[in-house]
Amino acid sequence: MCHGWSLFLTGLKQILPDIDSSMDVIEFLEEKVDKDELGAKTGKGFYDWTQEATEATRQKIAKVFIEIEQWSENSA
To answer: Cβ distance 67 to 59 under 8 Å?
Structure first.
């Protein structure tokens, strides 16, 4: 099952060769995924994620989705 960086990596492998011949980005992300450094999900990645930081980020994302939903309801 793919989530987060692993899902992003799967998509990137499909489109990046059409945009850039360099494989540096794919190789870098493959290393992250292979090391199970998947971001907030595993607590490691580009940043070290604490439970508090993960929850705060989830709350920010949820707030944005709520605002988008409210905006779309008011625009209809």
So the answer is: no
| Whether pTM exceeds 0.70 | no
Spatial separation of the C-alpha atoms in residues 35 and 31, rounded to whole Å = 6
| Cα-only R_g, the chain | 16
| Packing angle, helices 24-34 and 4-19, rounded to 10 | 170
How far apart are the C-alpha atoms of 28 and 58, rounded to whole Å? 25
Q: Identify any residues that bridge with 39 across adjacent strands, giving them in sequence order.
A: 44
Tell me the average confidence (pLDDT) per consecutive run of 10 residues in the chain, 76 residues long: 71 83 84 90 88 92 92 83
Residues 6+ apart with CB under 8 A from 58: 40
